[in-house]
Structure formats: C-alpha cells, structure tokens
Amino acid sequence: MHAPGLAALLRPGEGWARHEHGTHPLFADPETKPVVSPKVHDPFDAAKPDEAADTLYGRTNVFVREALRELDYPERLQKMLLTPQREVHVELIITRDSGEIGAFNAYRVQHDNSRGPFKGGFRFHPDASMDDARSLASLMTWKTAVADVPFGGAKGGVRCDPSQLSEHELERITRKLVQALRHVMGPTQDIPGPEISAGSKVMSYWFDEYSKYKGFSPACVTGKPISLHGTYGREYATGRGVYLAVREFLRAEHAGKIVGKEIVLLGFGNVGSWCAEMLHYHGAKVIGVADRSGGIANQNGLDVPALRHHVKARPPFGGTLRTFPGGTPAAQEELLRLPCDVLIPASVSSIITAENAHELQCKYLAEAANSPTTPEADQILRERDIPVLPDIYASCGGVIVSFFEWVQNVQNLRWEEDEVNRSLDRKMTECFAEIWQIHKDQKLPLRTAAYVRALQSVTRAHIHRGFD
Ligand SMILES: NC(=O)C1=CN([C@@H]2O[C@H](COP(=O)(O)OP(=O)(O)OC[C@H]3O[C@@H](n4cnc5c(N)ncnc54)[C@H](O)[C@@H]3O)[C@@H](O)[C@H]2O)C=CC1
Ligand SMILES: O=C(O)CCC(=O)C(=O)O
Prior knowledge:
Elements: H1 6-9, H2 56-71, H3 75-82, E1 86-95, E2 101-112, E3 118-119, E4 122-125, H4 130-147, E5 153-159, H5 167-181, E6 190-191, H6 200-214, H7 237-252, E7 262-266, H8 270-281, E8 285-291, E9 294-297, H9 304-312, E10 328-330, H10 332-336, E11 340-345, E12 362-366, H11 375-383, E13 388-389, H12 391-394, H13 397-411, H14 417-441, H15 446-465
Parallel strand pairs: 3-6, 4-5, 7-8, 7-11, 11-12, 12-13
Antiparallel strand pairs: 1-2, 2-5, 8-9, 9-10
2-oxoglutaric acid is lined by residues 119-121, 140, 143, 193-195, 222-223, 370, 395, 398-399, 402.
C-alpha cells in the first residue's frame, strides 16, 4: 500500500484553503505559472550539490528518494526537498602555537528551515567537506522532523586533524568560525551543537565569541556546560537516546528486554561511551568496543564504567581501548563480524559497506552515528533480514535535549535533570511508535518509514508557510 500523497496532507480548515488541491502552486504547471522557490544557493560557493550516488549527499538522497516514491509528490516539491537552501565555505586563518600560520577550510550547509531555525553540529575532522556537510545537514532536516522538535536541518565541518591541534588552537579556530559565520547564524537563525571532536568546550567558545558581537546570547548554541547555561542531561543525551531507541525496538520486535543482550559498539567517544554505559547499567553485556585506535573484546561482558575511566585517564593510569586489562585486543573489522544481538556503529560515516555487510553477524543494527550504512549495504542487510534502526531516529536524543536546552535559554530558566530525562524518554517512545506504525501499516523498512514521517512533516510546514 502506498503512503498518502500530498493531497492527504492538505487537510481542509488548516488555514491553507487559499491553495485547494489542484490550484496550489505546488501543483501548478511550471511552464505556465512559475513559482519562486525559497531554496537559493549562496553564489559564494561555486560547487552545486552533486546528486551522483557516489557522493555522500547523493547516498543520503537515495534514502530520501526511496521514501518520496511512496509519497507521490510533485516533481518541483521533490526538488525543493532534495536541495540545500544555503551553503557557505570559509577559510579560517589562525596563528598556530608554533608561530606559523594555519589555514583551515570550514563548511556550513543550511538545508531546510521550514519547521524552525536551522540546527545541527559542527564537526572537526580530517574528512570534513562540503559534500559531507550537505549530507549531514539533510539528515538533520529529517532527524528534527522525526523527533518533532521545531528546528530545521544544518551541519558544518572544519577540515582539520583535531589530534594535531592544541586546546588554544581549537579555541582560536572556533572563534574565527563565529567571526566568519555570525551573520548567518544565531538563536533564531541557525544554532550549532555538539558533533565529532566538538564537545562542551567548543560550544563555550562559540557562546562567548557570539555574545561579544550580539550581546548575551546563551540560545545561540547548545551543548554548553551546565555552569554556562547548558542543560542537565545533554552530555549523555545522544547515548541515552540510543539506549531508549534500542529498548523500544526490542520491545516492538518481541525480542525481549535489554538485560543479557550482547552488544558491540563501533565508536567510543561521547555517543558510543555513554550509550555503552546506559546499556551496561540496564543489564546488557557489552562484548566488544572499538574506536580509531583499535578495539577490545570480552565475551563475558566488558566492565564499561572501568573502561570509560581507563580511556579518560592518562598513562600510566589509563590509555587506549587496546591497553584495557579487562579484555582481549581486537581490530574493528573483527568486532564488526562478532556474533551479537545489537551492533551499534557510533563513529564516522560509511562504516557498514557493500564489502562488509555480508559478514555482519548481529541480529539488529542500531545506527548511533550519522550515516554509518551505505545504501548498498542497507540493501544487503534487508536481503539478509537484519532490521536496521535508522540514524534519523536512533541518534535523535541529542538534538531533542538540545531543543530542551534552547527552550531553557530562551526562557532564562533551568529544568531539573529528572525532568529532562523523563521528557527525552517520552519523546523517544512516542517517535518510535509513530515510525513503527508506518512500518507496519505500509510494510516499509523502518528507515523508509522514518523518512516518510519526516518528509510529510517538512512538506506540511512548507505548504502552510506558502511559497511566494
Ligand atoms: N555528539 C552528539 O550529540 C551527536 C553525535 N552524533 C553522531 O555520532 C557519531 C559520534 O559522534 P561523537 O561521539 O559526538 O564524537 P566523538 O568525537 O566524541 O567520538 C568519535 C568516535 O569515533 C571514533 N572515530 C573517529 N574517526 C574514526 C575512524 N576513521 N574510524 C573509526 N573510528 C573513528 C573516535 O575514535 C571516537 O571513538 C558521529 O557520527 C556523530 O555525527 C549524532 C547525534 C548527536
Ligand atoms: O544537538 C545538536 O544540535 C547537534 C545534533 C547533531 O548534530 C546530530 O544529531 O547529528
């Protein structure tokens, strides 16, 4: 059965009567009645989005298009949903600690703001690029819609190797970033948040620098420390959200409770380590963990709190995952093939590929990272009957609590930790139920079901806002 098309979104009496089905600009013949699209590219960037499937953005759009096929939307609307609104590329020049000049390319893509201000993190990573930012910005549009928080989607990246930057250099780069982008960002325009190698320290520098130009503006960025207008619960929100998502998923699949489930995590930074902690606390057996430096396995279950302590402490009191005494060193590729109940990628994009998807021995895959599975791998997992809990839902706990932080900042008040956590639990549960319903009713994979829900929500906002 097909999902309801555009006409079904246009409910009479919702204030859009001006555009009855058939006369709405979206249905107009482009030859006879031109409609001004709000999606305009920043002429500053010569590169236009390349939708070829071999780009990251193209791969993300493979999933979007799959859901669009269920929705039967007019071509012009599809184009709008597939096209980023603004793309900015800047070069940041700083003086390195050595006295030399350092130059870093940085990107911000603002994909869609029909549902609210653009929202999404800034990652510091050697692979950061415009293509990467486009793909991740688009995911944020669908993620905020799935999570039903009133934000749009954006993402940014600074192309650098954070392990080669001192604390002061990271601070200088962040301040330069604010100086370069402050005209297109702000509490009601575009609000950054945590991402790879960008935690609460980077968010503090952002808040400080932005406030120098625009006055005290805590709502200009989320993921700040609690002592600097941050919220309780944001530090572990994405990891906790993944745990809640897995809990709901197992329940719906009649696969039993978390207790005793065998888990493998690929990525042990903010998201991976907190997710491991939450799952361990609720009785799961975390039998393997990997990060950039290698991995560690223990069939009896790793002592996750001790492992987190170990990787945070410096030698001789701590070190890398591989030097943890409570397990056997293992490469990421080995852990990927380890039999387990749930495999959770929590690091970079495209970890699960056509080359390794045949080798996975998990019963379920839960995507804590953004875009960890390529479309080819996704297809293989479908054929192998391995259900996938998609990134735009599984990793949305972070942006949900970022929304709670923004709300507190705008109102100048603070919620108790318990209130944040209860609200996140409720939202993750409700969002899952909505996706599951579409999955069951329309017999769609969970990923497509999540995209259908997101596309309907974004489209509804576009229609209500009008297009001229
Ligand atoms: N921090 C947040 O609130 C959110 C993060 N995410 C996603 O979760 C993932 C992880 O983000 P964070 O934990 O915040 O970053 P992080 O910087 O705290 O941790 C990144 C982890 O990935 C590993 N890693 C980096 N490059 C790698 C590579 N080439 N191969 C294997 N492992 C590699 C690192 O060793 C580390 O364990 C990313 O995909 C991010 O987009 C999604 C939603 C929100
Ligand atoms: O909290 C935020 O705004 C960052 C969230 C994000 O970048 C993500 O969910 O991928």
